[in-house]
Specification:
Urease, subunit C, domain 1; 9-stranded mixed beta sheet
Length: 527
């Protein structure tokens, strides 16, 4: 009798347990025991989340998620930190991929070491141009190699092109200069950044099969850094087709927001048609640069930056800019105009204002923003224009600003808090390969401005929360993706990273050394 009673109790318990399980929803993955920074409107921090079909289906406390969901895959993070996957708001994805095949001179500390590195590269790539990066230097006059004499001697018939570590200038031998039809300013192979980029655009493009491999390697580096979406600013027609084909077959997973260069091929095949916004392809923007680097006096400013220095020149005329913007508007494309100097910024803003309706949702952008006159800030608010910055530019130009700008100009540069006061949103990007793609390093740069008074606002640096948003939800908004990504919320793609420290509260100088332990794209681990 007692045995039958015990069996009955056991069966009843099992029945209750099975009934409880049947009432739970099944998830593909459950995160628990974590500190999840959702980056939602209230910036809530949660413990647990459930993921199904690549999306977050619930976010809440451990008890809440455990009561509602069950899964064969439980990720117990034991108090580690979860953030939305980082979105690189301004980068050159294909150029970054190409940089991975270049000779690396970062450890070449002598002239012989440079020549040996270039010779080794030539042996491994017979018949190809020699392209190198990370040349060590303090100034063009204080460098391991100051002219192209030895390059011409050792590589007489092979074009050689060498970028410095910060991409401020390059060195080329005569064979390369002849091949691209350029003359160096001083006649010694030295090319400033604008000339160098002009030359770089003429370097023979690898075959699609080789470039595909490099793009996959680039994707891996992005995932390792915790970046789950990136950008290709100034994307060529050839590169659009290649990226599109690789995503279509599933070879490339990382979403790439394509900002198209306004070439004839892109205009005829894409920009003159309807913007594309599908799960595998996104072409909704046109991008162009108006001026050049501040430190080389190529920024177009209202007044010369320094005494005795000429102002920069526009890369396209105001009329051409107006026609391009009107064409983009007529066909439903977002405009992204790169401006450094306050005069170039004013021209772009006034051009936008002549076309856009007030308080629109077209999200036109000013890229690479360095300087802005205080009276021009209102355009960002009136026309919902998005400022896009590369925080590393503050570090690159800090000494130049200090030594060359008067008090008035200093009040116009890197006025990030002033810009945030217009729309409460700003986009940060790596500008890779011309800057580090490490998101925590970008955050640190955004948070590192010194105190200086600009129209009664003493701090222009971002707070940790603002810096994080500039690489997540604000960048998602700038790409028309805020309903799909940029925060950890129900219905959004499960793009997230796991780190061992709180990147919003930790000691700021240690931020660049933070290691992303795990990266997930649409609920699948990619690191």
């Amino acid at each position: 009798m007692r045995l039958r009673k015990n069996r009955l109790v056991a069966l009843l318990g099992l029945s209750m347990l099975m009934g409880g399980c049947q009432h739970k929803e099944v998830a593909d993955l459950i995160i628990k025991n974590a500190k999840i920074y959702t980056v939602n409107n209230s910036f809530a921090v949660m413990q647990s989340a459930a993921i199904r079909d690549g999306k977050f289906v619930a976010v809440g406390s451990d008890a809440n998620i455990s009561a509602r969901f069950m899964s064969d895959s439980i990720l117990d993070l034991r108090g580690k930190f979860v953030y939305p996957g980082f979105i690189d708001g301004h980068a050159h994805f294909v150029e970054f991929a190409l940089s991975l095949s270049q000779a690396d001179l970062s450890d070449a500390e002598s002239l012989n070491a440079v020549i040996n590195k270039l010779s080794d590269y030539k042996k491994k790539h017979p018949g190809e141009w020699i392209i190198a990066q990370n040349l060590i230097y303090n100034s063009p006059d204080d460098c391991i190699i100051t002219d192209n004499t030895l390059l011409n001697k050792f590589f007489e018939d092979t074009p050689v092109f060498i970028w410095t570590k910060d991409y401020k200038w390059a060195l080329a031998n005569n064979a390369l200069l002849d091949a691209v039809g350029l003359k160096s300013i001083a006649g010694n192979g030295y090319l400033d950044s604008q000339q160098a980029q002009q030359a770089a655009r003429q370097i023979p493009r690898p075959a699609d099969s080789d470039l595909s491999v490099l793009l996959k390697q680039a994707e891996r580096q992005y995932f390792n850094a915790g970046v789950t979406s990136t950008t290709d600013f100034g994307c060529t027609y050839q590169n659009v087709r290649l990226i599109d084909s690789l995503r279509e077959i599933g070879y490339l997973q990382i979403p790439v927001y394509l900002i198209l260069e306004p070439s004839k091929e892109n205009i005829d095949n894409y920009i003159s048609k309807t913007p594309v916004n599908t799960g595998k392809q996104k072409m909704m923007a046109v991008g162009i640069d108006l001026d050049g680097r501040m430190s080389q006096y190529r920024a177009v400013t209202l007044q010369p930056i320094a005494d005795g220095k000429s102002n920069g020149k526009l890369r396209i005329s105001p009329d051409s800019l107006m026609r391009l913007c009107q064409f983009a508007y007529d066909h439903g494309f977002q405009m992204c105009v790169g401006c450094v100097g306050d005069s170039a910024v004013r021209l772009a803003l006034k051009t936008y204002a002549n076309i856009l309706p007030n308080k629109n949702q077209l999200r036109w952008r000013i890229e690479n923003l360095h300087m802005i006159a205080h009276k021009d800030l209102k355009y960002f608010n009136h026309y919902n224009i998005i400022p896009s910055i590369q925080p590393v530019n503050y570090q690159y130009n800090k000494l130049f600003v200090s030594e060359n700008m008067d008090r008035k100009h200093k009040k116009e540069v890197f006025a990030w808090k002033q810009l945030l006061g217009q729309n409460q949103g700003i986009v940060s990007g790596s500008n890779a390969p011309y800057g580090s793609l490490n998101p925590t390093e970008i955050m640190y740069d955004a948070m590192s401005q010194e105190k200086r008074r600009i129209h009664n606002k003493q701090n222009q640096k971002m707070t940790p929360t603002q810096a994080l948003k500039s690489l997540t939800i604000w960048s998602a908004y700038a790409q028309f993706d805020e309903q799909q990504k940029g925060s950890i919320e129900v219905g959004k793609w499960a793009d997230f990273v796991v780190v061992g420290k709180s990147i919003t509260t930790m000691y700021q100088p240690d931020l660049p050394q933070v290691v992303v332990e795990r990266t997930y794209l649409k609920g699948k681990r990619v690191k």
